Amino acid sequence: MTISKTTHMQYKRVLLKLSGELLKSNKSKKNIDHAQLQHYAEEIIKAHKLGIGITIVIGGGNIHRGNKDVLQLNRTESDHIGMLATIMNGIALRSYLENNGVPTMHMSSIACAMCDVYKQQEAIKALEHGHVVVLTGGLGLPYFTTDTAASLRAIELGAEVMLKMTNVDGIYSADPNIDPYAVKFDHLTFQDAIDKKLAVLDRMAFVLCQTYKLPLIVFDAAIPNALLRIIKGEHIGTIVSDHKEPNIYP
Ligand code: UDP
Known about the structure:
Blueprint: E1 13-18, H1 34-48, E2 53-58, H2 75-99, E3 104-108, E4 116-117, H3 120-128, E5 132-136, H4 146-156, E6 161-166, E7 171-172, E8 184-185, E9 187-189, H5 190-195, H6 203-211, E10 216-220, H7 226-231, E11 238-241
The structure holds uridine-5'-diphosphate.
């Protein structure tokens, strides 16, 4: 596979937070729908061909969410199932990427026989060798989310930006599905997001981004080639950073 050299006009290392919900299809009623998996994996493959380091933290909300337990388990047990769900998604993503010629390392915060155990140095080595790194298991701890895992791993692995794919096209002043006057922000500072009480990310994930000055871009997963275009420097979605002006590069 040909991997082109990075140019100065693009990020060199990014972390993509892929919500488990994106793998689900209401049409097929499948929690991991092949067409959905293919769509996101192909977006990742296009971005990987730029020769940049890509880490994906994948959620599990398509299969189970600890705080919406329907099994009458206690929260810790329910979260354990949620974390295992992220591993299932990781197995599917790694398999698709590998089958399509992309060297991929799947590491989890939870030790199991299906993937490697997450180690910071091993993940960095894999990125340096041109592997896509898929991280699952969240932080391996209940009461946390994969948003928090994503911001922590982005910081640990030296990502320049955290990219959050969602099903809305950015951050709004209110829920655009409820409030017809909701306005979309192109750019916000961390402080703006706090002052406006915007639910940008989970609180803990947001605090990590702010404390360690990790910029965040929230964008619509449905926009064709969005990941590739953002990495190349196009302004899509909403940027949250320390800068007063929308500056996509750190
Ligand atoms: N989870 C957890 N600890 C973590 C990450 C995830 O307990 O560090 C559990 C939690 O129950 C969560 C579920 O795994 O609801 C799925 O993760 P998340 O909700 O973040 O997935 P997403 O919304 O991104 O699909």
